[in-house]
Write a structure and sequence with these properties.
The chain is built from four helices and no strands. It is an all-alpha fold. Helix 2 crosses helix 3. The termini are far apart.
Length: about 130
């Protein structure tokens, strides 16, 4: 397995995160310096806190808003298997899907018996006969 692309992506993400942190610190210092001249040190600190609270509110709203996907040609919105519906849900809300995957991984790591139960359920589900119509 080639780990070089994984390390490159990790380095790129770390560089972007470091640049974002530097920008946040610089922007907060600049906002404080400007606000301190007009409303004093306590007011400047309050202005910085308010500005970043507003920014956090906007980011939270953007990540949790409900997005209605465009209908795709040839794909039934209600049809499909469970896996297809999970993939569609992950495409609509990737952050929630990432959180669910992290929670599932935590549960599986802490309780390996769950893995056995899931594998047994899948194998038994494929071997069972469909109900008569």
């Amino acid at each position: 397995m080639n780990f070089k692309p994984i390390f490159r992506y990790a380095a790129a993400i770390a560089a972007v995160a470091a640049a974002a942190a530097v920008c946040v610190v610089a922007a907060s210092f600049a906002l404080y310096a400007v606000a301190r001249e007009y409303i004093g040190p306590a007011g400047g600190a309050a202005a910085v806190a308010g500005a970043f609270a507003l920014l956090a509110l906007i980011v939270a709203w953007l990540t949790t808003r409900k997005v209605t996907p465009r209908p795709q040609k040839g794909v039934k919105p209600d049809g499909g298997s469970l896996v297809d519906r999970l993939i569609v849900m992950a495409k609509e809300r990737p952050l929630i899907a990432l959180g669910a995957a992290a929670a599932a991984a935590t549960v599986l790591v802490r309780n390996p018996a769950v893995i056995t139960a899931v594998i047994t359920a899948f194998m038994a589900g494929g071997a069972s006969k469909p109900p008569p119509k």
